[in-house]
Write a structure and sequence with these properties.
This protein has ten helices and six strands, in the order H-H-E-H-H-E-E-H-H-E-H-H-E-E-H-H. By secondary structure, the protein is α+β, with helices and mostly antiparallel strands. It folds into two domains: 313 residues, Outer membrane efflux proteins (OEP), CATH 1.20.1600; 65 residues. Strands 2-3-5-6 form a four-stranded antiparallel sheet, with helices on one face. A two-stranded parallel ribbon has the order 1-4. The longest helix is centred in the middle third of the chain and has 67 residues. The chain is elongated and about 135 Å long. The N terminus is likely disordered.
Length: 441
């Protein structure tokens, strides 16, 4: 009977030890494969005219950075589910009183003890470990949200750059048409004998310069399409153009309202979870200072008498030197640093907001002034000068000056519109909402 109990305890101990070393063994086989599934939708290749909404959706579904972030979140969730489990039991086998001298020669006096040991954390270690794993998952979730906001802002800015270059190419085409018209008028004046042949050379030079600028903008536009497609991991450009209205300007919101919205940014909101994590780490450090209790139970077999006996034991480390003081002090200091780190993060975002708002306000004022005053006058001056040139009242150099001034005004106006919308996208990335939803002054 005793021998049967002895072998039964051995078998149970071995089976418990084997199972406890694989905490995922009780999970379905499909669990790990489901974890690796991030996006079941293949990368689509947009064609025709691409909208901003389509660009943002593609980036949210297929951007490599977000894909990696989702997998990291799933890994932390899996870790959280299996953190805080009881320590694994230990199998102990001890052989005594054999291969010695005298009565201990051979194995006649052999005593064999098989026991199972289990430690019991007394300070609440397991609870705080699970709490820490949960807070780490929360922080990763906040970081993923911050990455989403940053990606949305980046895609919007690259889309606006492509839209701006499309408009610049259109203006460049118009400038080339104007230069060609002036070249044609110059030919007529030379044939009529009212202008020297030198003016033909000047007109050709002007057309050549405008053509070079036109080719440069075409190259930049192609590159901007490529940069936009890369935001969702597509190496080839399959769409033809982007669409949007750059000339729509809204009233400037109060910067104080924007400051209030910045406080809701994930990079600021995450510090509440960060503080909870540091507190849990400090609690764990205190808990680890409490020594764990280890209990043992087993069977002992005496070869000489062929007897069996139960063995029970308790052990605990003596708290003489190591009281986990270093970790406790470090975690307490780390917890105290969180409010200062949060204020610094908020200060940096507010400083960035001031820079973006300044760019927004300047671009807004410049665009309004050019559209309502300078640009109409430059167009009027060019029209009058060209008419006067056809009639022979002004020189060729006057037409060139008026044409260059008009082109410059158009370019400055487009720059102002682009800067306004880029700054707007920048600010929206800081306040995590459309700019037109903020309170107007």
């Amino acid at each position: 009977m005793y021998q049967w109990c002895f072998y039964a305890l051995s078998a149970i101990t071995l089976s418990l030890t084997a199972c406890s070393s694989h905490p995922l063994m009780d999970q379905p086989v499909t669990r790990q494969s489901e974890t690796l599934q991030v996006s079941s939708n293949p990368i689509t290749h947009p064609t025709g005219v691409l909208t901003l909404k389509q660009s943002l959706a593609l980036a949210m579904d297929h951007a490599p950075a977000l894909q990696a972030g989702r997998l990291q979140l799933q890994a932390l969730e899996a870790r959280k589910d299996h953190t805080g489990l009881r320590p694994k039991p230990e199998l102990e086998i001890e052989f005594e009183n054999f291969a010695g001298s005298g009565e201990f020669q051979g194995v006649d006096a052999l005593e064999t003890t098989i026991s199972l040991a289990q430690s019991f954390p007394l300070g609440g270690d397991l609870k705080y470990m699970k709490l820490i794993a949960g807070k780490e998952s929360e922080l990763a979730s906040w970081d993923q949200q911050a990455l989403r906001v940053e990606l949305l802002s980046t895609v919007t800015q690259r889309y606006l750059q492509a839209l701006t270059l499309q408009q610049r190419l259109k203006q460049s085409t118009q400038s080339l048409q104007l230069a060609t018209q002036v070249q044609t008028l110059t030919d007529k004046r030379i044939k009529a004998g009212v202008a020297p042949p030198l003016e033909r050379i000047r007109a050709d030079v002007q057309v050549a310069q405008v053509k070079l600028e036109h080719q440069k903008v075409q190259r930049q536009l192609t590159a901007s399409y490529q940069q936009l497609a890369l935001t969702w991991g597509q190496s080839q450009v399959t769409f033809d153009s982007v669409t949007g209205d750059l000339e729509t300007l809204t009233d400037l919101p109060k910067i104080t309202n924007l400051f209030e919205q910045v406080a809701k940014h994930p990079l600021i909101a995450r510090w509440a979870s960060e503080l909870s994590l540091r507190q849990a780490q400090h609690q764990l450090a205190n808990a680890l200072a409490v020594n764990d209790l280890t209990g043992r139970i087993g069977l002992k077999h005496d070869n000489d008498a062929n007897d069996h006996a139960l063995v029970i034991g308790l052990s605990m480390p003596l708290p003489i030197s190591d009281r986990n003081m270093a970790d406790r002090l470090s975690s307490r200091i780390g917890m105290q640093a969180v409010p200062h780190q949060k204020r610094e993060a908020q200060r940096q975002l507010q400083q960035t907001l001031v820079d973006a708002y300044t760019q927004l306000a300047i671009a807004h004022d410049v665009a309004i002034a050019l559209r309502e005053d300078a640009l109409p006058k430059a167009q009027q001056a060019f029209d009058v000068t060209r008419t006067a040139f056809e009639q022979g009242d002004v020189q060729f150099i006057d037409v060139i000056d008026a044409e260059q001034t008009l082109n410059q005004m158009h370019s400055q106006y487009l720059d102002a519109l682009a800067n306004y919308h880029l700054a707007s996208a920048w600010i929206e990335g800081l306040i995590c909402q459309p700019l037109n939803q903020t309170t107007k002054p």
